[in-house]
Design a protein that fits this description.
CATH superfamily of the largest domain: Glycogen Phosphorylase B
Largest sheet: 8 strands, mixed
CATH architecture of the largest domain: 3-Layer(aba) Sandwich
Number of strands: 16
Strand content: 15-25%
Strand order of the largest sheet: 3-4-2-1-7-8-9-10
């Protein structure tokens, strides 16, 4: 198959969507499919055998790491030359709408996927009044597709409830070869804890942005004063959060990649994730693959991954002390923590990228052959 992927975000940006796309592209190309990536220009022309067509874009005012990119004249010729069997638009917003246009005008089967719960993000940027309008725009865009994929059962239900049609589940995936418990390191633990390796080490990995609600980890630190927090990643909210966490045992590490990131996951005592807006939470699966038990909000796609008391702990988002109680419970469970680590790894091992990509290829073939007829209920 020949797949044209339109995405609003790609390398060199680092986030869960890009991680999923990277692994998907690698496995598609390895299996003999051909991929064209149409994305905001990041300086790449090729990735793992796939051609990358970069579109000039402008930084988004509220989130400069993201770029608004409109397909310029000449993009149609690039698509025609590649001659795709299918167009897949990822989180259609601006560039993705261009992908929808080309699919419709060039009579190419269209798949869309939903990765970022944008309507819930609005409240974190003071724009909650626009939530209804945004759902209408999302419905108009996604209902052009022959198939809409979500990465958790909660998001499948959310889209169906908002009258988006032909919705199904794109199973989660994680690099179980990269993220492994044996990569725990005394040196990495000392680095993350700023020279306090014997203190309880809490870890956050991901975008440092308002919708991730990282600020809500501060009461946990105040309730467990001996604990240290390492925040791995970067984003538009870093400066505000550095001020917010001033005077606490918090270390803003910045981006880590590859084996360094894998070692960071494996070296923590608890991966703490307060976000209520997750469609999946890929970083949770990465932490679990590395054997790091999770403390996370019982919200969105997270319960698809974390089973309370088995491979981590969930807390009620309406309980102001929920995250504190769950974190204390995990840190106090010295006898149980090793079993939690083992269970977390076992859960992650079910979800390799090869299986997730085989499922996606099956969806692609169904759409191309026009056999996908029944919307999810």
């Amino acid at each position: 198959m020949r797949i044209a992927l339109f995405t609003e975000t790609f390398l060199p940006k680092v986030d869960g969507i890009v991680t999923r796309l990277r692994h998907t592209i690698e496995h598609l190309e390895r299996n003999g499919d051909r991929v064209l990536v149409v994305a905001p220009d990041g300086g790449l022309t090729e990735y793992e055998g796939a051609k990358v067509h970069g579109i000039p874009g402008l930084p988004l005012p509220l989130y400069p790491e993201l770029k608004l990119a409109f397909p310029p004249v000449g993009t149609k010729e690039v698509i025609e030359k590649f001659n795709p069997d299918l167009i897949h638009v990822v989180n259609p917003a601006v560039l993705g709408v261009g992908g929808i246009y080309y699919a419709k005008t060039m009579n190419i089967p269209l798949v869309a996927s939903y990765h970022t719960h944008l309507p819930q993000y609005l409240q974190h940027y003071g724009l909650s009044a626009l939530e209804g309008v945004l759902w209408e725009l999302l419905k108009a865009a996604h209902n052009q597709a022959k198939l809409n994929l979500c990465t958790s059962t909660a998001m499948v239900e959310e889209l169906v409830n908002h009258r988006i049609e032909r919705v199904d589940l794109w199973q989660r995936g994680v690099d179980t070869e990269m993220f492994q418990p044996h990569l725990a390191s005394a040196q990495m633990r000392s680095r993350l804890s700023q020279g306090n390796p014997d203190s309880p080490l809490l870890l956050y990995v991901g975008r440092v942005s308002a919708e991730k609600q990282i600020d809500q980890i501060k009461p946990v630190l105040e309730a467990i004063p001996e604990a240290r927090l390492a925040i791995v990643g970067d984003g538009p909210n870093r400066e505000a959060l550095e001020a917010h966490f001033a005077g606490t045992n918090t270390h803003f590490v910045g981006y880590l990649q590859g084996l360094e990131l894998a070692s960071a996951y494996a070296s923590g005592d608890a991966f703490i994730f307060p976000s209520r807006t997750e469609t999946l939470g890929l970083v949770l699966l990465e932490a679990m693959a590395a054997g790091c038990p999770v403390v996370a909000a019982n919200s969105g796609g997270i319960p698809d991954i974390v089973t309370d008391g088995e491979n981590g702990y969930l807390f009620d988002v309406n309980d102001p002390d929920g995250a504190i109680t769950a974190t204390k419970r995990l840190l106090d469970a010295t006898a149980e923590r090793e079993q939690l680590r083992i269970n977390a790894r076992k859960e992650a091992e079910k979800w390799g990228w090869a299986a997730a990509t085989r499922q996606l290829q099956s969806y692609y073939r169904e759409v191309i052959s026009a056999e996908y007829l029944t919307p999810a209920a």
